[in-house]
Amino acid sequence: ATWHLTGGKQWYQRRVRAEGGPIQETVSKNALNTHDDPIFSVGGDLAFNWGYGDNGHRIVLTGGYLSPLGSEDDNTHGLGNDYACNPLTGVSRGIRWQHEI
């Protein structure tokens, strides 16, 4: 999928950086388990650096659940996940969870 990214020079901040959903999307007709995928199962705009509680995600889509800033619910899913970290500093507690990538 391709999105049109919106402005801002501070890429490290928790921000939605695309508007209007994908402008191009191609998914293989042979793709499996897309209903469980954090990208293909939801729509929406791209958001980057989605930190909350002691969790962080590099890339998420706004069509999925986005945890509030102070939440400890582990319910946001995307790409570049870390569920035991300080998302503001990038320091991990060294714990690996099965669903991290």
Descriptive tags:
4-stranded antiparallel β-sheet; 6 strands; 101 residues; mainly beta
Would you give an account of this structure?
Helix content is 0%, strand content 24%. It has 101 residues and is mainly β. The strands form two sheets. The chain has a four-stranded antiparallel beta sheet with strand order 1-2-3-4, with no helix packed on it. A two-stranded antiparallel ribbon has the order 5-6. The chain is globular, with a radius of gyration of 14 Å.
Can I get a quick summary?
The protein has strands at 15-16, 46-52, 55-61, 79-82, 85-86, 91-92.
Cα Rg? 14 Å
Strand content: 15-25%
Average pLDDT, rounded to a whole number, is 77
Order of helical and strand elements: EEEEEE
Question: What's the end-to-end separation, in Å?
Answer: 20 Å
**Percent helix range:** under 10%
* Largest beta sheet: strand ordering: 1-2-3-4
Which class best fits the helix and strand makeup?
mainly beta
Low-confidence stretches: none
The 3D shape can be described as globular
**Count of DSSP helices?**
0
Number of strands: 6
> How does the major sheet shape up?
4 strands, antiparallel
Secondary structure topology:
Blueprint (H helix, E strand, L loop, with lengths): L14 E2 L29 E7 L2 E7 L17 E4 L2 E2 L4 E2 L9
